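4.2 Preliminary Data

To establish feasibility before requesting continued support, the project team ran the inverse folding procedure on a target of 129 residues. The structure was first converted into the token representation described in Section 3, and no sequence information of any kind was made available to the design step. The complete token record follows.
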């Protein structure tokens, strides 16, 4: 089964919720793994079942990086706030690097997230609306 990681910085969480709601029919057919707060917000807003890791600053980004390093995630959507310094920036950089090293599709903006999700859905034989 397709497994997708969803992560969003605080300022991007409303955008992530909107993204998930827009694609809820497809996302309900895949396994979703999230960092802690993002996962909680998605579950509350949509009722989707998500596997929650730690919050990003507490190691959640690294946990999802381990998923990518072990080929246990098929794509990552990480809506980042590029204008705000993050105290766990080394973890974020490591996650992005791991996705590159393991050729894991990674989106960091809403537009790129649409393309990644469309590609994963197409592999699953699912046509996005």
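Position-by-position output of the design step:
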């Amino acid at each position: 089964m397709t497994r997708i990681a969803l992560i969003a910085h605080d300022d991007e969480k409303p955008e992530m919720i909107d993204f998930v709601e827009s694609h809820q029919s497809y996302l309900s057919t895949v396994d979703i793994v999230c960092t802690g707060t993002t996962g909680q917000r998605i579950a509350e807003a949509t009722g989707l079942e998500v596997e929650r890791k730690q919050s990003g600053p507490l190691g959640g980004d690294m946990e999802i990086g381990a998923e990518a390093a072990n080929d246990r995630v098929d794509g990552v959507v990480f809506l980042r706030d590029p204008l705000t310094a993050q105290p766990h920036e080394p973890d974020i950089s490591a996650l992005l690097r791991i996705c590159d090293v393991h050729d894991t599709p990674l989106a960091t903006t809403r537009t790129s997230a649409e393309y990644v999700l469309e590609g994963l859905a197409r592999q699953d034989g699912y046509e996005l609306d």
